[in-house]
Amino acid sequence: MRLGLSLSVLLAGLGALLAAERAADAADAVRETGARCDTAWSCDGVARIVAVGDVHGALAEYTSILRAAGIIDAAGHWAGGESFLVSTGDLIDRGPESNAVIALLRRLEAEAPAAGGRVLVTLGNHEEMNLIGDLRYLVAADYAAFAAKEGEAKADAAAAGTAPDSKLPPGWLARHQAFSPTGDVGQWLLARPLMVRVNGVLFTHGGLPPGLATESLAALNTTSLHQDLVDYATAWHALIAVGLLDVDTPDDARVALAKTRLATYGGADRARLEALVATLERTDASPVLSVAGPLWYRGNAMCNSAFETDTVDTVLGRLGGKDVVIGHTITVTKRITTRMDGRVTMIDTGMLPDYQGQPSALVIEGGTRSVIYARVPGERAVPEPEARRVGDRPGGLTDDQLEQFLREAEVVANEASPLERAGTRLLTLRRGELSVRALFITAPAPGRWQHEVAAYRLDRLLGIDMVPVTVDRTIAGKAGALQFWIENAPSAADVERERVPLARWCSLESQYGLMRAFDALAGNVHRRSQNVVLGRGDGLARLVDFAAAFTTTRQLDARVARPPVGAELERRLRALDATKLAAALSPWLSGAQQKSILARRNALLAAR
Fold first, then answer.
1. Can you give the pLDDT at residue 379?
2. Distance between CA atoms of 516 and 554, rounded to whole angstroms?
3. What is the pTM of this model?
């Protein structure tokens, strides 16, 4: 189906030109205040920053947190003085008032400079999706907000000699035009950067993927990834206008369809259309549209800090940031959370009521950071360090709480173990309304079950976060290790054999590299794909079965590939000493075993 748009849609450079003009105007707006903005995405000397994460059309909740943070008054107008309000994107989709949220921010953006303040908005993946026609999360209200302009949009289409599909909901065509690169909303969105830096703090939607290690902040927001998004959106709209694409063509089929239709196209403007198809194909592979880019990446929020810290440090150094504030991934506790010793602050607390979270704001004043929660008037909290949670579990228990549960909960069921491993049973434990399953390990050889507890304790000591909670417990007169059973986590062998689909937010290569380093340290040469489990929902690798680990061998096993040791893991390994090992492992490992761990640590570092 062809949709006719005005000729301006076909002018590929217009959206970018207008975006640059708006960015320059915004940068000039604060030059007379104490803040110094070299560009529209880099400012220093800001006295107060208020950052709010994903809104998703939840207007009432958004205005409640803006009022609580002193950004707007009761009438919804700017009251933040010289504060800088930063939005990390995902203003739209899912919720009912996306259009009103954008309208509010645009008005505040215009009002703030008069008081010396500023509104900075970065794009989120949902803004990107709407700009390129991925409308799977729209609700009926998104179309209804544009219904009044539908007649004008249809008249434009008719003037261009095309007619929209009558099955489209009222407001669809007007919204499509508004979100085009030359439409009112599309222009405004495409003038927003992918990332901003304020007082040395980076703000972006998804995070800092490793691919940004070769970028600069200026290039990211102008000539590279941002320009890819502008070019893709422009080419997509233009190809729809001439009938080489349909509005409902799936994104993964667009390039092929455009090429097929172009092959039989006989118009005089074929050369221009060939260029547009080439642009679509080039930008279709851009990281800005994938999990490899800053709008979609979840690694900073989910991946093992023992290797992800290296990625964050590298990209922060490249982009001139001290730390990064992100949205995109809702925190487990629905409270603002930090990771990697404060390098990453996660501010998406599930504002949309469907997420059962709460509106929140991160406030940065000088060297102080505080958190405001709209549902608790007057509360001033601090960002909370992320608690260890290896594997999904009911009730939101932390690993510390899960340890206590495993030690104290009543055993209500005892069944055969799903693992082909002697001396194991699968137990169900219950306390109150909470129920958890756990492996009870009583290996026949002396001392073997203690190794499971030791592996967990060593994992916690190093912050590897790959070994499930494991405690010692005596059940029915028999001592053993009780290990949390991670539900819905097939073994790596099952994943490969059955082609089980998994989330791929965190690189398996990086996870397996960390696994090999930990196994080398623990002296475990019996790692098999059967004793690695992978979460279906998060794709995270977890390690079980250390029965044959913790030998007194002091060298790395020559049969095992030399594991990688990054800068952060090296720092943690060097911090190990006999005193720390004894405090963590003495009940479970002998002195000789502990000395062997340190010897293998030295061998790992020597091989780095």
1. 80
2. 16
3. 0.92
